[in-house]
Each structure stands twice: as structure tokens, then as C-alpha cells.
Amino acid sequence: MLPPVYRGRRFALLIFLLSLICVLLLRAGYLEVFQQQWLQKQADKRQMRVVSVPPYRGMIVDRNDESLAISSPVESVWCNPRKLFSVRAGLIKGTTSKNEGDALLAKARLDELDVGLQKVAAYLKIDATKLVQKIRRNKSKQFLYIARQIPPEISEDIASLNLPSFSSTSEYRRFYPMGEALSHVVGFTNIDDKGVEGIERSKNQILAGESGKKRVVRDGRGRLIENIEQIKEMKPGQKVALSIDKRIQFQAYKELKGTVYQLNAKAGSIIVLDAHTGEILAMANMPGFNPNVRSELKPSLYRNRAVLDAFEPGSTIKPFTIAAALEARVIGPNVQIDTSPGYLNMGKTKIRDPINYGSMTLDRILAKSSNVGASKVALLMKASGQWKFLSRIGFGRRPSAGFPNESEGKLSYYDQWVKVDRASLGYGYGLSASLLQLAHAYTVFATGGVLYPVTIYKRNEAVVGQRIMKEVNAKAVLRMLTTVVNKKATGKNAKVEGYSVAGKTGTAYKFINKRYRKNKKVVSFIGIAPASNPRIVVAVMINEPKVDKATGGRLAAPVFSKVMASALRILDIPPDNLPARKHARRNSGREGAS
Questions:
Q1: Beta-carbon contacts of residue 447 (< 8 Å; ≥ 6 apart)
Q2: Strands 336-338 and 343-346
Q3: Three-state SS for 177?
Q4: Where are the alpha helices (DSSP H) in 369-413?
Q5: What is the DSSP letter of 511?
Q6: CA 20 to 30 Å from 566, out of 1, 60, 346, 376?
Q7: What is the largest distance, in Å, between two alpha-carbon atoms of the chain?
Q8: 529 phi/psi in degrees, rounded to 5
Q9: Is the omega angle on the peptide bond into residue 313 within 30 degrees of 0, that is, cis?
Q10: Residue 70 — φ and ψ, nearest 5°?
Q11: % of the chain beyond a pLDDT of 70
Q12: Out of 165, 315, 500, 561, which one is annotated catalytic?
């Protein structure tokens, strides 16, 4: 039996413990009944978050549903520098603690933090010192990106380090399967996945979609524990289908790139059009860039020259001069134009031909590319008639094909023209146009005088065109253009085996500092095939080729020939100009089979 003193101590201790339990129960009851909402809010502030759900950007595809731009999931790692340095300062202070155990624990955690930062730098393949300096420079901020758009597995490695204030955000990165071959058309997005060039820019609202929002629970290290609710549903971006044919695009890009490099030219462009739908089947420019490599994204490289750059077209305008004259009924298709003595005096300006061609048919004016002949045809018309035809066919107006900032070129109003202006317009000087405008204008000769709206987007329904000229006149000019590709004509290098071709060469001096520079030229060729049943228009332009005797027939026509041959083969368009021997062989084969 315990002495009375011990029984008193036990009783006192028991009363104390019971009192403590009662106090705790009362406190718990008070918090549960009267402070529940406040505590829940405090817990939510520390654990529950409303996070943004990034939308999946819509795909860009070609006319055959082949991918041209796709998005892949990536992660962006960020940290809270203020919190990180606060934790670090606390650990440094802890190493000076009088309690040896606490000091050692603080030292171990500080070393663990430093090693963790070094591992982050190693995962991201950057210098650890620079990483620490970057965070230190921004130590007053609560948010700082450490790395953007990195593979998810690297983000997981960094998360496994459990560093205080470090977290990651899910994003998407754009990838372009064709790279440089289609870069000027598709364009690219910036680091925040917003379109800044090309189709990515013009269709950004459709492609981007809308971000969603959801409420989640995170632990003390910011890691996701549970999705609570969907506040706003994420809307993915819509798919955009282009009129581009990936197969033709690659061939056009390959031929253009090889030629520009071979000629050491400043730049070059090429366009392939479906004449009867106005759809752009291919468009390429040089110099180019790879949109998948952001270090190459320089403004001088990602300019879509086929759409933005206007130049004086030179002789490629001559078919429109003849077409306008036919429409104005000032000449007939069989008229003869006297170009003697090989030049035409227009005050201070003398318009010349290489030689005196004498009396010429309209066919021969185009085949020999006579400046005098084209000027005399232009002077037969009223200025108003010449201007109205050129304006109606698209010169001086934006093509509205779907690209941002399309050039409208330059076509001054006819009341400002004097006689020399009318003459020079006849052979392609005094106005300017983009290659897209020129290619589009040539489609009227392929469609019997109807101009269909040009577009970079795939058409699923027939489109209504505008009649620009009489069918008989359009066919007459088309027939004349076939003579340009004859053996002794300027466009002989544009021939395509098995197909009849109609087209026109162009060679123009560049106007710099108020005068034309004979050592700086823009050469071009625009053609149509098959000439008997036109389907495709191909336009080629080479800017400042650094070779002797630079002409459209020598430099641009061969590119046209190769690209047109590829396009006709890819689209499975039957030949219309097989040699007589092959025709006979095919016919005899058919007779034998029958």
C-alpha cells in the first residue's frame, strides 16, 4: 500500500491529465463548430489551387491531310526565387546554432539544396554558376522560368529532387515536319505558342483554342495530389487545311534552292497554282529558315518574298498588253506590228530591241520579247482601257489569298500617265507586282478568260470566278504564248517532255537610287501546262543572279520545266504532246488489243 504522499501525487497528476484532455477536447470542439470555415479556407489557400489547362493547338495539314504543323507536350520548369533564398538563408542561419545536432542537420540540408541546384543545371545542360546567378538576380521575384519547353522526362527528373519552390507547368511545343521547305507559308509560333508569322499568325485565333481552368490539390512542395473540379473546359484549336500539296511543295523547294545557290542569287521564289480553282499547290522562297530551330529565326530570313516583295515584272507583262489591246478591239490576233528600225524614241527615253525585227506578228513579239512591238501595241490603246484591264486582272490590288500583309504592288492611276509611261507599261516597267499577283493573273489564259480567287486554303466546293476577258481572246493569247517555248524563242528551256507549254520569260533591271542598274536584274518565267487543256500555272523569280547573260529564259525557265514536270506527274495529268512515233505505237497497240 502506497504512502499517502504518493497517492496524492498520483491523484494530482491524474487530475492534470484529465484537465488537459478536457481543454484539448473543448478546443477541438470550438474549432470544429465555430472555426471550421475559416480553417478550411486557410487549408485551401495552402493546398488548393486553380490552375490553367493549356489548349492543344490545332494541326495544319496539306490538301491530302498530311501534317505540316503539330504540337507535342512539353514542360516548363519555374521557381520562386524569394522563397528559395528565404529557405537558404534559414539553413545558413541554422548552421550557426549552438545545438550541434541542429547545426549538422541544417548543414546537411544546405548541401542537399546546393547539390540539387547543380543537378538541375546538369539536367538542363547549362552552367550551374550561371543558373544560381540567374536566380540570385531575381531573388525579389516570386516567379521565374528556369527552362521553357523541355521534354517531360527532364521535368520529372527535376521534380524528383524535391527542391523547395521548384515546380513545372505543362505546355505544348510546335513542330514542323517539312522544316525549311514550307517555312514561309506555315510560319511559326513564339515561345508562348502564339502565331507570329505565316498561317500560324493569320489563323492564330482558330488554331490557338481556349485555355481551361481546374481546381486541384497540391502538397507543400507544389506536387499535384488530386483534381477537384473542372471550372472551365479547355477547347482545343481547330485543324486548318491548306491547298498545298506536300509532294509538289518539296520538289519546288528543292529546285529553287539548288538554283539560287548555284547562281549565287540574292533571293528567289516559286509558286505553283491550280488555274481552275485558284488554289496554291506550292510556294517556296530562298533564303529560307528552319522553324524548328529558333536560333535561325531572323527577320531577313522568314520574309515570304513571293507574297510581300513587289518588283517590276519586265517582259512577263507583255501578254497582258496584247490581251488588253484585243479586248479594246484596237488590234486583231493576226495583225502585223512594224518595229523598224529596232528602237522607239520617246523624248529622253529610247526603247530598244536587240536587233531590228522589222514587221512582226503578235506571236513573234512574244516569242522574241520585242520591247518596241509591245510598246507600239500599248500606244494603240487609250490609257484608261490599259489601266482598267490591268486593274481588273489584279494589279494594284491585294490578292487576299490568306497571308498576313500581302503586297498590293503598284499601279498608278492612268490620269498621271504620259506617253512614255504607257509605252513602258507595255513591256513591264512603271508598275510593280508580287510573284503571287503575276501567277494569279496568268490563270486567265488557262481558264478561257475567267479569274478565280486565289487562296492558300483547301477548297471543298466550287468557287465562282469573274470573267476578265472574252474566251476567244484568252485562247488567242494562250496560243501566242506557246510560240515562246519554241526552239528559236526566248523560252525554249521551259519545255516539258510529253506536254505542250505556254509561257513567257521576263528580265527586268532593278530601279535603285533613281536609276536602273544593269548589273542588278530580276529574271522570271511564268508558264502554263498542258497548253491544250490548261491545269497548272508555275511562276519562277530569281532576284539578282550573279552570272553573265542573266535572262529569264536561261535561268528561270529550266526551274519551271523541272517543277512543272513533277507537278504534272504527281497530279497524274495525261501528256498531250507525245511524239508522232509514240502516238503511232500506242494506236497500233490499241488496235491489236481490240
A1: 275, 276, 465, 474, 534
A2: unpaired
A3: coil
A4: 371-380, 383-392
A5: E
A6: 60
A7: 147
A8: -155, 155
A9: no
A10: -135, 160
A11: 89
A12: 315
Region for 241 from its dihedrals, namely left if φ exceeds 0, alpha if ψ lies in -120 to 50, beta otherwise: beta
260-292: b or e for each residue (b if 16 or more CB lie within 10 Å)?
Answer: beebebbbbbbbbbbbbbbbbbbbbbbbbbbbb
Average of per-residue pLDDT across 255-281: 96
Average pLDDT over residues 223-228: 56
Strand partners, 591: none
Distance (Å, whole) CA 354 – CA 521: 17
Please give the pLDDT value at position 512: 86
* pTM of the predicted protein model: 0.82
Domains of the chain and CATH, by start: 50-208+220-232 (3.90.1310.10), 264-582 (3.40.710.10)
Cell 546538369 found at: 122
Please name which of 148, 123, 144, 124 lies closest in space to residue 134, comparing C-alpha atoms: 144
User: Residue 279 carries which DSSP code?
Assistant: B
In the numeric block, the cell 492558300 is attached to 456
CA dist 289 and 443 (Å) reads: 30
Q: What is the pLDDT of residue 346?
A: 86
Whether the CB-CB separation of 159 and 27 falls below 8 Å is answered with no
Q: Is 172 helix (H, G, I), strand (E, B) or coil?
A: strand
Q: If DSSP states are collapsed to H, E and C, what string results for 521-578?
A: EEEEEEEEECCCCCCEEEEEEEECCCCCCCCHHHHHHHHHHHHHHHHHHHCCCCCCCC
Strands 188-189 and 195-197: antiparallel
